Structures are given as C-alpha cells and as structure tokens.
Amino acid sequence: MSIVTKLETFLDALEGSQTPDDIQSLVVALRESYGVSNAVYHAVNVGPMPYAALTYSPEWMQYYHDQKYVQVDPVVKGAIRQFHPMDWKQLDWSGKGSREFLGEAIAAGVCNQGLSVPIRGPNGQFALFTINDNCNDASWEKFSKEYKRDMMLISHYIHRRVTEILIPESENDTRALSPRETDSLKYLSLGFSRGQISEKLKISEHTLRVYIDSARHKLGALNTIHAVMTAYSRGLISF
Amino acid sequence: MSIVTKLETFLDALEGSQTPDDIQSLVVALRESYGVSNAVYHAVNVGPMPYAALTYSPEWMQYYHDQKYVQVDPVVKGAIRQFHPMDWKQLDWSGKGSREFLGEAIAAGVCNQGLSVPIRGPNGQFALFTINDNCNDASWEKFSKEYKRDMMLISHYIHRRVTEILIPESENDTRALSPRETDSLKYLSLGFSRGQISEKLKISEHTLRVYIDSARHKLGALNTIHAVMTAYSRGLISF
DNA sequence: ACGCTATTCCCCATAAATAGTGAGGGCTAT
DNA sequence: ATAGCCCTCACTATTTATGGGGAATAGCGT
Question: CATH number of the domain at B2-170, out of 3.90.550.10, 3.40.50.720, 3.40.710.10, 3.30.450.80?
Fold first, then answer.
C-alpha cells in the first residue's frame, strides 16, 4: 500500500517539524514523494504576517508578493468560495488581470495542471494547499482521483503544524462576551439597526447601547464595525 | 484493510444520497459500521435553517433546539475555536450552565467519550461531526487514534453533500467588488473611521463614501456593518 | 464603437455612534 | 457573604455615518 506509506511517512515527519524551515523542507520532500512538479502551502489569512512554504522559485514568490497578486490570483479567488478541493480547470481564467497573471505564472515555472485544497481555521484563518504539475488532462485526473484524500489530510496537518508554530498561545485568551452582548453583536452583524435589535431583544435602545459599548471595550475594538468583526473572527458570534 | 473498506463504503454511499433523509440513514449506518453509540452531523451555521443528522433521540434534539443549547453546549463552544478534531476530554465542563447541560445530555443518552471534528466552509459555514461512545479512556484513545483520519474525511464529505443538497446555487452569484471598494471595506473592518481611511487611500471622504455605498449595494447589504461582514465571509476581504 | 464599470468629486438632511456619568437588582463563584 | 459581573434603564453633548440626490473622466470587454 504505497499510498498509505507515503501519507504516513509525511505525517510522521510533520510531527517532528519545529520551524518554518522544517515545513519548507517537508513541502519539497512531498513534491518528490508524490512525483509532482510543485507543492505549495500558502497561508493567505493566518496571523499577522504572510507565510508560504513552496517549491516555486523565490523570485516568483517575491514578485507575487510585491504585485499583491493574492488579490488577483484566480486560484485564491476561486478557492475562497469553495469547500472541496478544486481542480484548476474549474477556475475562471478570463479577464485581463487573470490572463496576464497566468502568462507570468507559467513563465515563472507554474504548471498547467493544479489541485488546490482550501483550508479554513478559527479566527477567519484561510490557507491553500496546492499541488501542481505538467501533464495532460487524463493523467492529471487519474493522479488527482488517487491522491485527493491524501492531499486533504496533508493540507489539514500542514496547516495545523504551521499555526502551532506561528501563532502564539496568547492569541487565544479571549474573555467571552455575555449572552446579551453576543446577541447584540450578532444582530448587528446581520444588518439590523439598533431600533430593530432593541425590539427583537425587548429592551430599550439605551440598554442595547450599553451592551454594544461593553462588548466593544471587552474586545478592545475601535468601533462597532471592528467589534463585530473581532467577535466574528474569534468565533464569538456566528453569521 | 478494513479501515479503507469502511471508509470507501461510506463515501460511495454518500455519493448516492439525494435527500436529507438519506444523510440521516447514512449517519445511522455509520454508527453501526464503526461500532460507536452515536454519530452526529450538526450544521451549526450553514444556510438559513438549522439542520442535523444524528442518532441521538428526537426528544433530546428537540429539547436542545428549544433550549437554544447551541449557545451553551461546551462541544460547540470548544470546537468553534479549534482546528483539529477535538476529544471531549479537552473541553471545559466547568460553569453552571455546562454542568447542567452535561447532566441533561447524559440522561438523554449522550455518552461520556466523544470526538468532534470542526468543519468550516465558505460564507462562514460552520458544522460539527461527532462520534460518541461509552467506554474507558484507554479504549477510546485507541479507537480515536485508529479512526481519526477516517472521521476527518467523513465529516468533510458529509458536509459537502449536505451543502450541495441544502444550499441553492443562487447563493453563489457574487459579483466581485472593485479594488477601491475592497480597500474601503478592509480598512473599515480593521476599525478605522472614514476620515482615517480617506487619508490612507488619499481620496476625499466623499469619494470613500461612494465606494462604501456601492459595495453595500453590490453585496445586497442593509448597512455598512452588514456589508463588511458579508464581504468578509465571502472572502472578498481578509482581516 | 458602444456600453458598462471604476474612479473621483460635491451638497444636504437625518440617523446612528461615541463618550461621559448615573443607578438599582440579580446571579455566581470563591 | 462579599466581590464581580450581568441585566436593565436614564440623560446630555459631540462627532460620524447614512441615504438621497448629481456629474465628470477614463478604461475594459464584446
């Protein structure tokens, strides 16, 4: 069972990794063990600083960053509204920006076939794991079908390790909001006005204001929008 | 390889499911094939109406819903800030509400050991997949270690199927925002005032307002807070 | 070439948010 | 039982945001 062996070997190695450089080495090793041209873990929205572990050239990585291509890249734009691993053939490559990006990406060594796994974590974390190769559609389909589940597990475990390494523990010390504060922010996030919310909660608008204010202070938020966003990304309210 | 067989059998059956009732039957079948007391898929924040496929008693499900226990349940509160599958032993069961809930849950047939897999999708989707059994810590640890990856894949595929069945296609017709609109909402989400943002973007405050307004209209949002939340949960802005 | 969208600017009136300072009763945990 | 948070309501004043208009230039896609 070579599938299981490859996966097990990788996940075991991942457990032993301690630094971002270790992750980088593992991604390189992964490319080789699965026989693809590129493997990329890209932390799109994880913690304050950007992070990626990849086998693309450092020049392309730097250029991608400098050009703010994360806002253009059809892979990112597509994956962010996707739940399941996504084949690059599903993507929309039309539009001037996308076509220019594609040209530059191919020139930089990015291949024609790709499979990208969206990864979502708490606090609005979003990352992508991509494998990328040059081959025809039939071969890619076969490869993709055989290893998709491996890739789903691998992407999950890489993200887990990366966040363990990158995100300090102190990020998690979140004093919870009171039920009324939670309710207030939840209705605000749904677009209701204070008048509507105070009716729903059957309290005066003054009281509602007290909740919103205290929630804002507890969350260390600068204003109501910030408070709602903070509460949402900390999982204190749902949408 | 019984593990692979079980998993394959389940995922194949899942592909053939067409209705919420089919999913329910599959969850019951899953409980039996893995030999646990309960299996639960719980769509906490997926689409407008609540949904669950589970082997707990209908009475407990109804009571849980009526009591709004989703706001109390330590499993939900814990999983929502967790990325990796979470053993119930990691949870904080202190606090009056949690202890009362625990008592009622056990009386309703919920077992002492549990493993819950958090599932996150686009547009702020959040769901939970839980397996639950009565046994000692050592047995559970063994079981958990053996089948955790199966459960991760199963939870992903159940959620995928549920959303395919429950969420209509029309939810996905999202016109993208322009770069300036994106910038405006991003800075709003970070807590800046319109004065600060117009300085940063080097445009007049009037112009900024045009962007915020047009973003609001494009997103079908009721006000600015709603627009920012919608943009965020659709992945149009990062945080 | 035409239409659509992006970008930029402006006025006015009303609604909402922010920052103070207050008070009283209830529940929980140590 | 005592401290701390939770829930509820009230007043005032200032700053900011919202919603309704309108208008011009420039670029991109069909």
Answer: 3.30.450.80
